[in-house]
Amino acid sequence: MTTVVPTSEEDAALSIVRFASELAWADAGPEVAEPQVSRLCLEAQEFIVMGKWLELASLMITSAELIFSKVSEKDIESIFTIICNLVTKIENTDEVMEIVKVITEKIVQQPNEKPAVRLKILINLYNLLETPYCQFYVYMNVLTFAIDGKVTEYIIPSFKKIDSFLKDWKIGIPEQRELFLTVSNILKENKSMSKDAFKFLTNYLATFVEEDVDVLSEAKEEAARAIVEFVRAPDIFQCDLLDLPAIGKLEKDEKYAPLYTLLKIFLTQRLDAYIDYHAANSTLLKSYGLVHEECISKMRLISLVDLSTDGSCQIPYELIRDTLQINDDEVELWVIRAITSKLIDCRMDQMNQVIVVSRPTDRVFGQHQWHALRTKLGSWRGNIANVISTIQANKITDDGSQTAQ
């Protein structure tokens, strides 16, 4: 027989059990309700005394779910704050995970019933956790629930902290893939966040480095999607997709090889190459929702950037006209578009009919560009170190001269 130590009804967990069970059984009448309420409270007391927090959590959340639709959102938050707080009473991480699963699984079962408050409960649970993997588990459930409950606007701000989260969670590659792809899928539904969606999709593909052929095949559809999103995006002109093995796998793929060719055109060639490609693949482009006129516009800007990286700081209007396949009176308009898109720094010399480029933009930013940047930064660091040394040497000389005087 279990010995029950009397517990004050001021105990928060016991108060929740009593409140929830009384409300849940209210319609059954006092003769039926009172024995049931007493039984549930007695069970709760036993669990509290014996430190059976998992059993207590299961009891409390079952009662709480029964009254979810009967009480205010404020009351629901208060009830689940007490339930979630049970995770702080346990030191064993496996037991913490068990309680986390019990709470999370119940919360996400009804995404269309008070989704905002359910999301708050999950976030509150996350904030109470100290175990990294438990935090990751809850966060992924937050993302999935936000999608199902159509409340993604509440969790999008947290995406700015993903890098910090990853440092804390220390999760493996499979978990990172799941995270990046889920975040990208959420963001792609928001047209104003297409750049961020593309960034997380690229992060996802970047995890498939040094994988065998079978694993790379898992990313085939997402790799194709990344190409389409890059080509479609009117404000993304630079990427390192060609350096990714998951993208390279498409080069010899029967279905996606034409997309790989399209990507190479957008990253390494000019408008004339795209025109030829379109002539042979117009149906394919339409099947991916790519608009020919939009592709032409983007390729013109890309081609202008390519002209600026040829090594000459002066580009004749005539060359721009022929390369972009435009009229004479459109040259300056396209130069202005490139400047406002921050693709090139230049000035227009209308007298001599040339543009003078001061800073071009690399179309591809891969290993070669990173190496060049590292070399440049190293040179700058060396120059700064020399300047500091010279200043210190002069200061010592000046101090010595003043002492001698």
TrEMBL record:
Domain PCI: 196-362
GO molecular function, one term: translation initiation factor activity
UniProt entry keywords in alphabetical sequence: Cytoplasm, Initiation factor, Protein biosynthesis
GO biological process, one term: cytoplasmic translational initiation
Gene Ontology, cellular component aspect: eukaryotic translation initiation factor 3 complex
Signal peptide: none
PROSITE patterns the UniProt entry points to: PCI
Origin: domain of life: Eukaryota
Family according to the record: Belongs to the CSN7/EIF3M family. CSN7 subfamily.
Identification of the protein by name: PCI domain-containing protein
Protein's organism: Sphenostylis stenocarpa
